[in-house]
UniProtKB/TrEMBL annotation:
Entry protein name: Sigma-70 family RNA polymerase sigma factor
Any single biological process term in GO: DNA-templated transcription initiation
Organism of this sequence: Acidilutibacter cellobiosedens
Domain of life assignment: Bacteria
Domain (RNA polymerase sigma-70 region) ranges: 36-98, 207-259
InterPro entries documented for this protein: RNA_pol_sigma-70_dom, RNA_pol_sigma70, RNA_pol_sigma70_r2, RNA_pol_sigma70_r4, RNA_pol_sigma_r2, RNA_pol_sigma_r3/r4-like, Sigma-70_RNA_pol_init_factors, WH-like_DNA-bd_sf
Pfam families: Sigma70_r2, Sigma70_r4
Annotated keywords: DNA-binding, Sigma factor, Transcription, Transcription regulation
GO MF annotations, alphabetized: DNA binding; sigma factor activity
Length: 273
């Protein structure tokens, strides 16, 4: 759905807000909205890629509601810039709507705001492909490392809830497996123990094609050293890097493995799943 493009008023924001406040002129208020619709689009674009149930048009509608709130609360007796003032209300309305109705799971406002702070800080470094330690990040946004662990947990399960019935398509052999099929059976046979041993040996050999850091991250992530698999947060602490940076290293390493001719050897094990 496209928003209907209205013609802007020749009057300034100052003239229109004065008309509305002094005379309760609804036409003046509507002209204010049209004149400043660009602020709504700007705020909506910043939120459109947050993996919510909201469409861009939904965010525009929430932004307009926020602008109307800002217009109603604007005090003409104070020396306040109108555009700056209403943009605050536009952005707040969109953020609150996302927090309340944009996800399957609802979190308290302060948790949501901390999640946004962490993501913004991480992205500012990842934009330039730079590493930042979790300790420095925590200092910059004034949270403890324990709080950082909790926030990353929320980010993982809040933004991306996944059904156990999600179907996973494996390569070009038309093999379809549901996510729940990867839940391990506690009854392990001798044959499975031997198979797992050989599988780990073959995986370790393939890992030699990776860089040292990529290799170490995957070994820790999937328990290839005979230990319990570690979370992204735990690996991040070990390397003094953020969870997001470890996730990127893991993703890049797995892409290399998928593109490698050696991964054909791993397909043989699918016959035993």
């Amino acid at each position: 759905m496209k928003m209907k493009k209205e013609k802007k008023s020749i009057k300034s924001n100052e003239e229109l807000i004065l008309l509305y406040k002094m005379n309760n002129d609804i036409n003046a208020r509507n002209e204010l909205i049209i004149n400043n619709i660009g602020l709504v689009y700007t705020a909506a674009r910043k939120k459109v890629n947050l993996h919510t149930s909201f469409t861009f048009e939904d965010l525009i509608q929430e932004g307009i509601i926020g602008m109307i709130k800002g217009i109603e609360k604007f005090d003409i007796s104070k020396n306040t810039n109108f555009s700056t003032y209403v943009y605050y209300w536009i952005s707040q309305q969109i953020s609150r709507a996302i927090m309340n109705d944009g996800y399957l799971i609802r979190l308290p406002a302060h948790i949501y705001e901390k999640m946004n702070q962490v993501s913004k800080e991480e992205n500012s470094y990842l934009k330039y492909d730079s590493d930042i330690s979790s300790k420095i990040l925590c200092e910059k946004i004034n949270i403890t490392e324990r709080e950082y662990e909790h926030i990353n947990f929320y980010k993982t399960y809040y933004y991306n809830p996944v059904s156990l019935n999600t179907v996973i398509h494996i390569d070009s052999d038309d093999i379809f497996i549901e996510l729940q099929d990867f839940i391990p059976d506690k009854k392990i046979t001798i044959e499975e123990i031997i198979l797992n041993k050989h599988l780990k040996e073959d995986i370790c050999e393939i890992l030699n094609s990776l860089s040292l850091r990529e290799r170490e991250v995957l070994k820790l992530r999937f328990g290839l050293k005979g230990e319990k698999p570690m979370t992204l947060e735990a690996i991040g602490r070990k390397f003094n890097l953020t969870r997001e940076r470890i996730r990127q290293i893991e993703e890049n390493a797995l892409k290399k493995i998928r593109k490698s001719s050696q991964n054909e050897r791993l397909k043989e094990y699918l016959n035993y799943i």
